[in-house]
Amino acid sequence: MATIEECRAALDQLSDNLAGAEGGVRGSAALDRSLSCRITDLDVTFTGRLENGRITVLDTHPGPPREKAEIRLTMSGDDLVAMVDGELNFAKAWASGRVKLEAGLRDMLRLRSLL
Fold this sequence. Notes:
Layout: H1 4-20, H2 23-29, E1 32-39, E2 44-51, E3 54-62, E4 71-75, H3 77-84, H4 90-96, E5 100-103, H5 105-111
């Protein structure tokens, strides 16, 4: 099972990956939205912002998100680490229910190119 530190490192790596992306992927990630990532097996939530193609983690707290973020992810720690490492395809994990992504319709349309 992935640790909180490994999950945080994976989010930092995801942020770096988004910041280094080009073309349509970078444009899709260039939002300014609140973000939460709930890690179910660790019962912890990372909260922060997606701004200009980067994820900034502002807080980590136990349990489910305290406030409803504009973009909400839910998954296990192992799935987060595997996705960032390229071992798990996000679209397949999302389609199978291993990963949940919730956002407004406009944001979902913009984020679809990241999938």
